[in-house]
Amino acid sequence: MSRLAFLLARTLRREAPLATLSVAQSDLLAALAGKRIALIGNARALAETDSGAEIDSADLVVRINRAPMPSPRSHGTRTDWLALATRLSAADRARIGPARYLWMSPKRKRLDWSTATSPGFYLHPLADYARLHAALGAPPTTGAMMIDLIARSAMSSLTLYGFDFFASLSLSGRRTAEQVPHDFTSEADWAADLVARDSRITLRKS
Which of the ends of the chain has fewer CB neighbours closer than 10 A, N or C? Predict the structure, then answer.
């Protein structure tokens, strides 16, 4: 696809052409099979932990959006996959350096050419977003979408770090829970239920 064709498809919300840039979800899930996965949320409380070495020891480290990493002690240093719902600056791309970008947001107009044409790019289906939105009764966070996606794979384990569902706010911004469109109580209950039902998933308390 040419850059012009991409911009046209993005502007007109033509999902089918954009989807041709993405790896198949089945291939993405297959890449998770048998892996010990660390998914890093952006809760401020994570900065007070010593989780860095444990995070970096995972087979696959997945971070979210601008992926703040204030200290290797608390956050580790590796980023294999980056799940996005926002555009990144060139400086953030260089700092984070993921091997794969995943565009999770239904807001396709935010998707940039560099991300969409990166190796292994993944575009999360709108139907999956809508299903989780209905289950939560509110727009899901990028973190919730990633938990939902990874849980459907044959991964060995999924450990969640930096997920306190906005109790300590976010390292990536100053907004309060009232200023964002998500229902964090609903997400916390949903995640707790998933952890209770799936022994492969562990929520690390910050």
Answer: N
